[in-house]
């Protein structure tokens, strides 16, 4: 074997492991798994800033326009005072009324345009977050997906990110604008009358203290409420992933009651969050109303005593009245901010998951022809707290030909394929392809040379063509026709209403088990792989198709290296070599005839499948 060209060291490290993630402790299957137990690496507010920063320009323009709209509104009470003075002086109302009209029109236009621009920025922020999440989710390591619940992840991508829209747009800028309004109003109050100002400030302090108490509770309640939604999504996803089994088991009522319980929990948690939000509203509203009454009382007395004129009192009251908007706006913004921070917390947990980062890497090799595979004393287990599945597996499949992996169920045959594909790293020992440890291959290149047909031959929602070209997007019509013929799919394509462009349903439910397997085989062959991994590829085929595909396998083995996990030995009796697995070790390697002669386990398997006399 010639060793592949190119630097090995330069392409290491394509798998990313979040250093902050704690080991998983998942045993409960009824609720959504916590995506990660460690808190997000950065404070949610810092992350919010990072997400919003690329859209800052639009946010600031929108915010400035909204702020200008608010300022224009602030002038209204002053003009009203002017109107009263003008009336009491018997002067013409034309000038103040013109001002008032201009203020209303300009204020209205600014109040519409500013929030609209901020909403656009908010949608852009959500898009940025979703893009990051999508990239992360699709590249998650297989081990992470083993322990997670897709329904919960879907909820994070859809529902949680949606909560960010308002917070990233109107909330922060609106809150800041409202805060400035309030500060401006307070300054004006101090300028108008210090005694009334003091009365009002007591109330402002009261509101602040109450908010400090309520806000963290809103955030916690929102996290709980969003988690409950995720749990519900997980349960629903669980049912649809085994829909026929649920029905055939008559388990609808049981599943409905579980979903109902999850929906009730989501409702209860939502109500709790709403309770704190409502309390925040009251906590802001009540003191302002009390302040209004107190100003009326104290101000009335001051007017009666001549310490203050009636115009100033009315101006002060109007100012207070006007400030109710910004005050309740600020409180609503703070509540929304808590909701958004809760959402960021859940979104950021996904960032802590282990994923396979794409890295630019030099190609290792331009070799064609069959790839060689070798396992050298490989041990492996799926988790630190799980038993070893491989206890020192050693075998080689050196180039062109058919290698069959056989042995009892659970012996570790499928795991061999997972290690070759680098879905998991071997614990000790080495798994090499073309003499290079799989850990040293650029991940994309390694997987690019392999065609893999999984045990349950999954197909994805979409058209038949989309499913076939998934691993070979550049395949031409001629190539597709050829694999369709080779995989005995011609009849299926002819009978489908739109041929190759017919949709084949969620998880290929409109296809038979055998058809799904043949689609998966055709997909793998279309890639023209240097290494073909077939897992139980013929288990659901009828006798005629099994014989035909056995021929396909042997044909492929003429050109490439084919590894097949087989339970039905009839399909692999003519394999170049058969590797017999037993409880995580290779107990024998040989041809069918040699193994029947020398290996007791294989002889038993062959006898039980009527391939030899017992
Ligand atoms: N993702 C996983 N997490 C934890 N344990 C796993 C995982 N996948 C497989 N196992 C366990 O590893 C062992 C070997 O599984 P593997 O699928 O490799 O066996 P196999 O020989 O292919 O079996 P079969 O012939 O039934 O398909 C089994 O005990 C199985 O329960």
What portion of residues belong to β-strands?
A: 5-15%
Structural class: alpha/beta
Percent helix: 55-70%
CATH fold type of the largest domain? ABC transporter transmembrane region fold
Which H/E pattern describes the elements? EHHHHHHHHHEEEEHEEHEHHHHEHEEEHH
Average pLDDT, rounded to a whole number, is 82
Shape: elongated
What is the number of beta strands?
Answer: 12
How would you characterize this protein structure?
The protein is α/β, with parallel strands linked by helices and 614 residues long. It folds into 2 domains: 37-355, ABC transporter transmembrane region fold; 373-608, P-loop containing nucleotide triphosphate hydrolases (Rossmann fold, 3-Layer(aba) Sandwich). The protein is 60% helix and 10% strand. It is built from 18 helices and 12 strands. It has helices at 44-52, 56-88, 94-138, 142-147, 150-192, 194-241, 243-248, 252-305, 310-351, 413-420, 443-448, 464-469, 477-486, 490-495, 513-526, 543-559, 592-598, 600-608, and strands spanning 15-16, 355-356, 373-380, 390-397, 401-406, 428-433, 436-437, 450-453, 531-535, 561-565, 577-582, 585-590. It has a 6-stranded mixed sheet, with helices on both faces. The chain is elongated. The two termini are 41 Å apart. The model is unreliable at 1-14 and 16-40 (pLDDT under 50). Adenosine-5'-triphosphate is lined by residues 146, 382, 386, 389, 409-415, 565. This is ABC transporter ATP-binding protein. The chain crosses the membrane at residues 58-79, 99-118, 163-188, 194-215, 275-298, 310-332. Residues 60-339 form the ABC transmembrane type-1 domain. Keywords: ATP-binding, Cell membrane, Membrane, Nucleotide-binding, Transmembrane, Transmembrane helix, Transport. Belongs to the ABC transporter superfamily. Lipid exporter (TC 3.A.1.106) family.
């Amino acid at each position: 074997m010639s060793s592949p060209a190119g630097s090995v060291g330069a392409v290491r490290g394509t798998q990313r492991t979040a250093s902050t993630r704690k080991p998983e402790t998942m045993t409960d299957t009824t609720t959504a798994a916590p995506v990660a137990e460690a808190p997000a690496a950065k404070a949610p507010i810092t992350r919010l800033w990072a997400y919003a920063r690329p859209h800052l320009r639009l946010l600031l323009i929108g915010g400035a326009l909204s702020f200008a709209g608010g300022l224009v509104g602030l002038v209204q009470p002053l003009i009203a005072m002017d109107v009263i003075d003008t009336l009491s002086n018997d002067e013409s109302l034309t000038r103040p009324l013109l001002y008032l009209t201009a203020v209303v029109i300009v204020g209205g236009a600014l109040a519409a345009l500013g929030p609209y621009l901020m909403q656009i920025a908010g949608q852009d922020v959500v898009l940025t977050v979703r893009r990051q999440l999508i990239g992360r989710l699709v590249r998650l390591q297989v081990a992470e997906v083993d322990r997670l619940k897709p329904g919960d992840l879907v909820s994070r991508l859809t529902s949680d990110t949606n909560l960010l829209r308002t917070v990233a747009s109107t909330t922060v800028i609106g809150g800041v604008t409202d805060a400035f309004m309030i500060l401006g109003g307070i300054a004006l109050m101090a300028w108008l009358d210090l005694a009334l100002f003091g009365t009002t400030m007591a109330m402002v302090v009261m509101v602040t203290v109450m908010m400090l108490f309520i806000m963290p509770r809103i955030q916690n309640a929102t996290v709980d409420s969003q988690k409950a939604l995720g749990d519900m999504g997980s349960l629903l996803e669980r049912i649809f992933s085994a829909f026929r089994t649920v029905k055939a088991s008559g388990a609808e009522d049981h599943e409905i009651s579980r979903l109902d319980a999850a929906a009730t929990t989501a409702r209860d948690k939502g109500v709790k969050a709403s309770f704190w939000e409502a309390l925040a509203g009251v906590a802001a509203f009540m003191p302002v109303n009390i302040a209004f009454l107190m100003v009326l009382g104290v101000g009335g007395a001051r007017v009666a005593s001549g310490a203050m004129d009636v115009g100033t009192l009315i101006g002060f009251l109007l100012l207070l009245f006007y400030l109710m908007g910004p005050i309740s706006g600020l409180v609503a913004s703070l509540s929304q901010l808590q909701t958004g921070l809760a959402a960021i917390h859940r979104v950021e947990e996904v960032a802590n998951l282990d994923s396979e980062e794409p890295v630019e890497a030099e190609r290792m090799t331009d070799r064609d022809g069959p790839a060689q595979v070798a396992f050298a004393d490989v041990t492996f287990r799926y988790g630190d707290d799980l038993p070893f599945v491989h206890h020192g597996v050693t075998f080689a499949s050196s180039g062109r030909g058919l290698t069959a992996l056989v042995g009892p169920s659970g012996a570790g045959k499928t795991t061999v394929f997972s290690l070759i594909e680098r879905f998991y790293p071997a614990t000790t020992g080495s798994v090499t392809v073309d003499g290079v440890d799989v850990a040293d291959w650029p991940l994309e290149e390694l997987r690019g040379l392999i065609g893999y047909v999984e045990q349950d031959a999954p197909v994805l929602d979409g058209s038949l063509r989309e499913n076939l070209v998934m691993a070979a997007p550049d395949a031409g019509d001629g190539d597709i026709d050829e694999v369709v013929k080779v995989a005995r799919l011609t009849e299926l394509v002819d009978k489908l209403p739109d041929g190759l462009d017919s949709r084949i349903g969620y998880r290929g439910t409109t296809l038979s088990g055998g058809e799904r397997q043949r689609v998966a085989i055709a997909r793998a062959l279309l890639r023209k792989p240097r290494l073909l991994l077939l897992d139980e590829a013929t288990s659901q085929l009828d006798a005629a198709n099994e014989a035909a595909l056995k021929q396909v396998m042997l044909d492929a083995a003429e050109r490439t290296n084919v590894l097949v996990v087989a339970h039905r030995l009839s399909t692999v009796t003519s394999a170049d070599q058969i590797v017999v697995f037993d409880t995580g070790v290779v107990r024998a390697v040989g041809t069918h005839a040699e193994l029947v002669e020398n290996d007791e386990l294989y002889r038993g398997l062959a006898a039980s499948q009527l391939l030899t006399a017992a």
